[in-house]
Amino acid sequence: MDVREAQLEVRRTFLGGFAGQLVSGLLWLVSAGFATWGTHRQAIVILVAGGFFIFPLTQLVLRVLGGPSSLPAENPLNALGMQVAFVLPLTLPLVGAAALYRLNWFYPAFMIALGAHYLPFVSLYGMRLFAFLAAILVAAGVALAMYAQDSFAAGAWLTAGVLLVFAVLGRAAVRA
To answer: What share of the chain is helix, strand, coil (3-state, %, to 5)?
Structure first.
């Protein structure tokens, strides 16, 4: 199996990132709701703790949709997928440090880490769409940290919307 065939299998199996983006977008949406109408602590705990369930929930969504929920063992991109999965949790201490310095930097810092996490998806899926997702999240995270320091929840709402839009775009790209 060559790289293009492996990427095609990743795109087809994970529907262009649809299920993962959908689950992530909904998690960010719930966190945004708590950031707005609950407490900061609740919002943070929901996003961080909920993040550990994104992959199993993604697999559940894929099963419900009637397709495979994981790549075959012989796909050479399995190892890259596993490595990419650990990028975000390993950056959480940096997000925590930013939030300890300035609580309103929690979501912007998380957005930057999330954007960096999505960059290798370009190679994993063979889809440039993920480069745009990464760039939007990083740029928006930086802009919010610099210019919207009085807003705690803005980054959560923005990220939820961006992830949900990219879920639809990814699925549409695979269908095309």
So the answer is: 80, 0, 20
What residue spans of 38-105 are helical by DSSP H?
Answer: 40-51, 54-64, 78-101
The answer to whether residues 169 and 129 touch, using CB atoms and an 8 Å cutoff, is yes
The residue with tokens 């440090």 is 97
DSSP annotation of 131: H
Residue with tokens 């961006």: 162
pLDDT digits (tens, 9 = 90+) for 103-151: 999 999 999 999 999 999 999 999 999 999 999 999 999 999 999 989 9
**Quick one: pLDDT band at residue 1, thresholds 50, 70, 90?**
confident
**Cα dist. 134→21, 61, 65, 66, 103 in Å?**
13, 23, 26, 29, 23
- Looking at this protein, which amino acid is placed at residue 125? Y
Task: State CA 18 to chain mean position distance.
Answer: 11
Closest among 167, 176, 139, 173 to 62, alpha carbons compared = 167
- 3 state DSSP class of 76: coil
Tokens standing for residue 135: 């760039």
Please give the Cα distance from 152 to 167 (Å, whole number). 25
